[in-house]
Amino acid sequence: MHQQTIAQLVQGLQSKAFSSVELTRHYLERIKRLDGTYNSYITVTEERALAQAAEADKRLAQADAPALCGVPIAHKDIFCTHGVRTSCGSKMLDNFIAPYNATIVENLQAAGAVMLGKTNMDEFAMGSSNETSYYGPVKNPWATDSVPGGSSGGSAASVAAHLAAGATASDTGGSIRQPAALCGLTGLKPTYGRVSRWGMIAFASSLDQAGTLTRTAEDSALMLNAMASFDPKDSTCVDQPLEDYRAQLDQSVKGLTIGIPDEYFGEGLNPETAAAVEAAIKTYESLGATIKRISLPHSNLAVAAYYVIAPAECSANLSRFDGARYGYRCENPKDLHDLYERSRSEGFGEEVKRRILVGTYALSAGYYDAYYNKAQQVRRLIKQDFVQAFEEVDVILGPTSPSPAFAFGAKTQDPVSMYLEDIFTIPTNLAGLPGVSIPCGLVGGKPVGMQLIGNYFAEGQLLNVAHQFQVATDFHQQAAPGIE
Ligand code: GLN
User: Which of 58, 68, 98, 275 is most buried, taking the most CB atoms under 10 A from its CB?
Assistant: First the structure.
């Protein structure tokens, strides 16, 4: 059962080939047996999963089952889940039981999905390797000496090891697409504002967006159908008509123009990764798409702008963790100042502290104009590059990350080398555009992903372009060695 995609599971459940309780028990048994190796879950919610599965079976019997009725999925531990620990990968929130559900958790529940548990992640979603988690690193199912990517490393590993049929995730600078690439999955970051951020613990609010990690583009469409909604509780959520993304997966790519940005194939890109992406471009050509070289001239400024804007926003967002309201509190504080200082020093890890310091500095009087304002101006230029490009092309294609999964510890001593993991994914977040990473080859036995970037709210077209590649190829069907 665990080999099946969400689309196949939905069919199996509706045709009564198996029940949701059987399916859920099967996944829970796999998690117990195998997740000691991968560490993809922080919390497994066995009782709640079985109760939801029993409920789903009732609805399946009455034939009024919603779209994902009975399908077992996992939630990244950044999404608040009522009555369940929501840690965000941090000691700061190790004791935090969320008093409500995030909107996307609520939406997926309404669609009948069963929650298996909460997945591991970099602390407060800051990282590209899952090595900053308070709960220990996650192992890549393709090579257990290597990272799964981050920050949604637990969500990616759980799906790649077939310990969940699909998982939610979040992407501020690449945290869905990069782990998708490193674990051989399909990872979708929707347009900023398409999916509610309410109940998703904030890192950098103008960049954060919730999305999906799945085996196929079709599964991403099914999950996005359930997750997307207009939510007045998130003031940046856009009141855009809901679409059936799956219904848009039958369009030929003939007549579409795919743009290939020169800037995404330069220095720093592993040559074998480049070759896999070039081969994918040929596949699209053979499917009838027109390929056009384009330029996104400000791409080289994106990482620098991001590492001012994201820390600035995180320094403001994370000021709420003060030891007074909720979360970690130090022992025996002497006075209020001591409470703040020690709770924050003891509760946050190194990378989070580094970002808070950088962000506070960039926002301080005298530096605001030089750093924060300048970064916002650069952000506008990056957005304009894309707006211009989309006057000539329908979709943009390039690599997702510079190289395949790297070994544990390889980049932890040099934050900048870690930050460069997201060199191709960050521009999309700065512009607020949707992006998807899909598998397009193996290098040294490890998966490589290509990234497709769509125009604003064109998730239907974007997922269709990804789906057409998956109809023509079988990279997405390959499982990690030893994962049957
Ligand atoms: N790796 C990037 C960072 O560390 C992006 C993280 C994310 O998308 N949440 O900030």
Answer: 68
76 in active site: yes
Contact 6, 166 (CB under 8 A): yes
Instruction: State the Cα–Cα distance between residues 104 and 75, nearest whole angstrom.
Output: 10
Domain boundaries, the chain: 6-255
Q: Which of 76, 172, 412 to mutate to test the pocket of ligand 1 (most atoms within 8 A of CB)?
A: 172
Other C-beta atoms within 10 Å of 285: how many? Answer: 13
Instruction: For a ligand 1 pocket test, name from 78, 120, 124, 175 the mutation site with the most ligand atoms within 8 angstroms of its C-beta.
Output: 175
Model pTM score: 0.98
pLDDT digits (tens, 9 = 90+) for 406-424: 999 999 999 998 999 999 9
Neighbours of 320 (CB within 10 A): 11
Q: Catalytic residue, from 19, 76, 139, 315: name it.
A: 76
Q: Give the three-class secondary structure for 321.
A: coil
Ligand 1 pocket, 169 CB below 6 A? no
Q: Which residues contact 447 (CB under 8 A, 6 or more apart)?
A: 142, 181, 182, 183, 184, 404, 405, 439, 441, 475, 478
Task: Report the C-alpha gap between 186 and 178 in whole angstroms.
Answer: 10
- For the stretch 333-391, pLDDT in tens is 999 999 999 999 999 999 999 999 999 999 998 999 999 999 999 999 999 999 999 99
The question of whether 151 is a catalytic residue gets the answer yes
Within 10 angstroms of residue 180's Cβ, the number of other Cβ atoms is: 37
Q: Backbone phi, then psi, for 7, in 5-degree steps?
A: -60, -40
Q: What are phi and psi of 109, to 5 degrees?
A: -65, -45
Residue 259 CA to ligand 1 center (angstroms) comes to: 25
175 is catalytic: yes
| Gap between the Cα atoms of 149 and 137, Å rounded | 10
Parallel, antiparallel, or unpaired for β 114-119 and 72-76? parallel
Q: In what order do the strands lie in the sheet with 72-76?
A: 41-44, 114-119, 72-76, 167-171, 209-214, 186-189, 435-443, 446-453, 395-399, 257-261, 290-294
What is residue 216's three-state secondary structure?
coil
The Å distance, Cα 129 to ligand 1 centre, comes to: 10
Q: Note whether 154 and 138 are within 8 A (CB).
A: yes
209 touches 195 (CB < 8 A): yes
Q: Which CATH class is domain 6-255?
A: alpha beta
